[in-house]
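Good morning N.,

You mentioned wanting to compare the apo and holo forms, so I went ahead and generated the holo version with flavin mononucleotide. This is what I fed in:
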Amino acid sequence: MPTQNRPKLLGIAGSLRNARWGMGNKELIESIKQIPNEEELFAFLTEESELHLNNFIEAGRKEGKPFLEIYKNLKSQKGNKGLSNSEVALAAALWSAHKKDVDIDHISLSEYFTATGRSRKIGELKEMILAADGLLISGPVYFGDRGSLVHDLIEMIRHDPEMHEQVKGKLYGGIAVGAKRNGGQETTLIYQMLDMVALGFEAVGNDSDTTSQYGGTGLAGDVGSMHKDQYGLNTSMGTGRRMGNLLRRRSYNREIEGPVNVLFLILQESEDIAKRGIENLLKECNGKIAPTIVDISTKNIIRCLACDICPTDIDVDEVYRCIITSEQDDFETLHPSLLDYDAVIPVAVSVHNTDKVTSNYQTFIERTRYLRRGDYVFSDMLTAPLTFEEIGVREHYSIRMLTSMIRHHTVMTKPMIGHLHNGDLLNKDQLFTEFNDFVSSAHRLTSARLAEIDAEETVKYNPVGYVLSADKDKEDERLQKRKSMTEGRKAKMIKQAKERLKPNEALV
Ligand SMILES: Cc1cc2nc3c(=O)[nH]c(=O)nc-3n(C[C@H](O)[C@H](O)[C@H](O)COP(=O)(O)O)c2cc1C
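and this is what came out, ligand included:
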């Protein structure tokens, strides 16, 4: 068995309403670790959420004191009881991560970035971040975006060259809590994910059990109300589980031999700009990558019909399971070339003169629905957008690719954006560096995935499964097919683990 260091996930709460600080953080973590099951977790969260409301009442709300006085009284408390809304969601996520065999910790940004704008104990904050393998940031939605505490954290990392270098490759996940149903939880998570991957983090959303989106999305306005939002708690726990599973897999410290298999999907092209751009990037890679380049932009891809049951069937990945089998559509022929990679890079070219542009961007993305709902065929692949954009063309493909691809249960890294002007690529060196970072991440992720298969003989590895519909799954034959699908994936992984992992030094 390989030796495994227990990875650490640091939960970061980002609200001035935080109820925990100082020793209150440690006490919270100890309490979370003691909770044996979900039922007791929800009871704990309810109690702490209500305690937080009680903190407000005791601090002066019951006497109708002005808020500034209440605020001062709250801050003079010990910071060891109650949880703010974003802390409730974070505690749920940390509990789930801990259940996946990772170590957890909790800090409140309000301890480091004060209400008056002063920063305190920044060395300590930096140390905590650098000691962690992953950061799970939970904060309130302010104006459809993060609040200034989380903003200051991101700026701190951005402006500190040492931190910026050392956070590269750490894992990131997010939770956003807002007062309204469409209050901006998703915009907050997407902007934050864009910023964190730009800093070099590898990002994930919530897991497949909670349908793999951008992270935890809480709905809570009033103080002490987050515990009532079961859906928000579920997505937060899904984020914790996703991070826990990945952190654990990454901690085996194994490495693969040979190249990573990377699929380039050219979704929008103009005069071979994407093709040449990819070839130039590959020249510098010295065998670290085995590429497959598929030009989707000139294929015939008709629209997704939004059929009621997608995919048409439960089956092994090799079977094409979209309802569209028309001769005017190339997807069925493409299907085999979309399987069995370590990483996938969607590619698009954005130019002012659209005369020579060929594109299937949107139709292709919508047609991947059967791959997502068909048990997340792209699950745990590394992904990052690659775009070549003339200055001033604002098609935002790098952002749109991130929002669509993360829903395939992938791991996201920094979008690679080539800036074009008058036919020249202006940021060639930067693009090469970003591409090299992508390749390193792909090696790390592939090694992590295969290492656990090798270490645990597949006990822990469960290929993700999507519950299509209760009726479908009830049928025995389909259940059998689902079993074949998961077994098929496992068998492939076991074979790959044997063939691709370097010998385990602990055993040699
Ligand atoms: C300055 C400010 C802006 C806010 N903007 C939004 C918003 O855009 N959308 C939303 O749903 N809630 C918004 N809220 C509400 C908070 O996100 C919500 O109360 C949340 O539960 C606070 O979490 P906390 O208790 O952990 O601080 C805003 C609150 C404040 C103070």
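The chain is about 45% helix and 15% strand.

Happy to go through it together on a call whenever suits you.

Best,
F.
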